[in-house]
Design a protein that fits this description.
With 75 residues, this protein is mainly alpha-helical. It folds into 2 domains: 31 residues; 44 residues, Helix Hairpins, CATH 1.10.287. The protein is 75% helix and 0% strand. Helix 2 runs antiparallel to helix 3.
Length: 75
């Protein structure tokens, strides 16, 4: 009987670990991707760069970086 109990306990631990992996994967999927974060500042930055060039758009580039940092990205 003790052998059966150990096997069942081992199976239960393995099952719980696998469920934890699934939950961790779901948490990563639900996090915003950097390409989808801060669409307003991204649009302004991109339009400025297209029209005026990157050198003239430092204000918009920095505003977008600040928004991304506020969303938790390390940029």
């Amino acid at each position: 009987m003790r052998g059966v109990q150990l096997q069942n306990t081992s199976s239960l631990l393995t099952s719980q670990q696998n469920e934890g992996s699934v939950n961790d994967a779901h948490a990563v999927e639900s996090k915003k991707k950097i390409c989808c974060a801060c669409p307003d500042t991204k649009k302004l930055r991109d339009e400025c760069i297209v029209e005026h060039g990157e050198d003239a758009c430092g204000k918009w580039i920095e505003a977008h970086k600040q928004c991304l940092r506020a969303e938790g990205f390390n940029v």
